[in-house]
Design brief:
Length: 559
């Protein structure tokens, strides 16, 4: 019996060594770290554990026509770690194999049956156990299954005295070797999940540290603050380059390497465009065709070997990307992948909070109401002067102007920062236009191209009129030749496009740049506030184009 026990202990050592090697393989780790296994995972686990079980049969020791073996280690571990299906499939494969290699053997049939039933029993124990006590259930399961095997040998194997001799001599070594081996293999395998939890704890701690460090820079989001955010991420993850983008442009980046300095603002990378479109995190290495890193120097392309590109989201909409570049593929670790995903969520949340705080700050200071609904005293004085001039020569016209002025003032004072229906917003625009037409007569022509089917959509109040006012005041009235303003509302692929176009004097490119950078002052403040509000609400402000002659200002709202 001692010699038999020694052989079985050696065989158990082989199984434990195989389990240890498996625990270090990334593919096996990836499967075992999952909360739930899919069909492919179950089939892979069934193949692995049934192979271990079959190996246990092959290296078993012959005793009086029976095979003392460690087969049930693989089958029991399969069921307890993988569940009933994995246990049953592994048991079937190992059990059928046991029968086929020795069809005439004295214990072939009872051992085959006990192996199959062992897989089912282990699958049942899977439902009863948890990650903390599976090795205990494995030990108990091993004892139960081996006892079942011995019982079936006594019942089914003939002659009975041979069956009795076999059970008497192999019972103790088989039961305890298999039970102990099962517990050890489960502990080795479950350690993969423990490592995952440990890694998750480290990641959470690092993510919290990054969150605490970056939080102050989200209070005022601009190129400088986002550069600091990128620097913190770069230092924390050991990245060579970190970039944050919106949907079209690079909004901030950081690198220690001069060769990696970016000289462009537009998004050029096809990989980035794919992430923006799909909303999926992308892991890139030099094997990926889509990984076309774009920079000003050839050294950049040669230096960068891998990247993680994560989407930044607001609700379900992708608003930008977080791009983390490395000089080696070794840095594409699970830790960095999970961290990149967590950081993208963190940055998305911080940006959304910053936006909400900005809107609240504007509301608290009454910026939206005071600046967007402001009534220029000179405009009011000029309108009253116009009404006075019409009172004697055309009282009906004077009455129309008063009604238009009333509509204009009421809309400004009542709606402020509300969302209103398009038809209501256009009512205020028409009231303003009618007043200006009364003042300037043939010097001004205003045309409307409105899709009547979209009048019921809602948009922020006081967003169209400031554009019309700018077109008339700075486009037409400052021009010696232009006289036409076209107001257009139509459906497009992205939503509803609203544009105001004039054929006047145009707008200086420096002024356009200042509006985009939020640095404009003076009489263009109305445009800036519309641009700023639209950015906060829709993530994209006014698009300003010089037409030569004239200017076209447009924006898109979600329908």
């Amino acid at each position: 019996m001692m010699i038999l026990a020694s052989h079985l202990l050696n065989n158990m050592g082989y199984v434990i060594a195989i389990a240890f090697i498996l625990s270090k393989l990334k593919g096996f780790q990836k499967i075992m770290q999952k909360e739930a296994f899919n069909f492919n995972d179950k089939m892979v686990l069934s193949f692995i554990f049934s192979s271990i079980a079959i190996l246990g049969t092959y290296v078993g020791v012959d005793y009086n026509g029976a095979i003392a073996n460690t087969r049930n280690i693989g089958v029991t571990v399969a069921g307890i770690l993988g569940g009933p299906i994995v246990g049953l499939v592994s048991g079937l494969l190992a059990g059928v194999h046991r029968f086929l290699i020795d069809t005439d053997g004295v214990t072939s049939i009872p051992c085959a049956i006990s192996t199959i039933l062992g897989g089912l029993i282990a699958g049942f124990l899977y439902r009863k156990s948890n990650i903390k006590n599976r090795y205990i259930y494995g030990f108990i399961g091993g004892i139960i299954i081996e006892n079942l095997s011995m019982l079936l040998i006594l019942i089914m194997s003939k002659p009975f005295y041979v069956a009795t001799d076999i059970v008497k001599n192999i019972y103790v070594p088989m039961v305890f070797t298999n039970a102990i081996g099962i517990s050890i293999v489960i502990l080795i395998t479950e350690n993969i999940r423990n490592e995952k939890e440990k890694l998750a704890g480290i990641q959470s701690k690092l993510a919290m540290e990054i969150a605490n460090k970056t939080l102050p820079y989200f209070r005022e989001i601009n190129t400088d603050s986002l550069k600091e955010v990128c620097k913190i991420i770069s230092d924390s993850l050991g990245a060579d380059l970190v970039v944050i983008t919106d949907k079209e442009n690079i909004t901030g980046y950081y690198t220690k390497e001069k060769d990696l300095e970016l000289t462009h603002n537009k998004i050029l990378s096809e990989a980035t465009k794919y992430v923006l479109k799909s909303g999926e995190l992308m892991i890139c290495d030099k094997k990926d065709d889509i990984i076309n890193f774009v920079c000003s120097t050839e050294k950049y392309v040669k230096k960068i070997k891998s990247a993680i590109i994560a989407p930044l989201k607001e609700a379900d909409d992708v608003i930008g990307t977080l791009k983390i570049y490395f000089s080696t593929e070794k840095q594409l670790t699970e830790r960095n992948k999970y961290l990149a995903e967590g950081l993208s969520t963190l940055i998305s949340t911080q940006m959304e909070i910053s936006k909400i705080e900005k809107i609240k700050e504007m509301a608290d200071k009454a910026e939206i109401r005071a600046l967007q609904a402001q009534i220029n005293p000179h405009f009011l004085f000029n309108v009253l002067h116009t009404i006075t001039s019409f009172v004697r020569i055309d009282p009906i016209k004077a009455r129309e102007i008063i009604i238009d002025l009333s509509t204009y003032l009421r809309h400004n004072l009542e709606n402020g920062d509300k969302f209103v229906k398009l038809e209501k917003e256009l009512e205020q625009v028409r009231a303003y236009v009618n007043i200006e037409l009364a003042r300037f007569g043939n010097k001004l022509i205003v045309e409307y191209a409105i899709d009547e089917n979209i009048n019921s959509i809602e948009l922020p109040s006081l967003t169209i009129q400031p554009l019309v006012e700018n077109a008339i005041k700075h486009g037409i009235l400052e021009s010696t030749t232009g006289n036409t303003v076209v107001i257009e509302v139509k459906k497009c692929d992205e939503g509803i496009k609203i544009s105001v176009e004039d054929n006047g004097s145009g707008i200086d490119e420096k002024i356009i740049e200042k509006i985009y950078n939020h640095t404009i002052e003076g009489d263009k403040i109305g445009l800036l506030n519309v641009h700023h509000r639209l950015e906060l609400i829709y993530n994209k402000g006014i698009k300003i184009e010089n037409l030569n002659p004239g200017t076209k200002m447009s924006f898109i709202i979600n329908d």
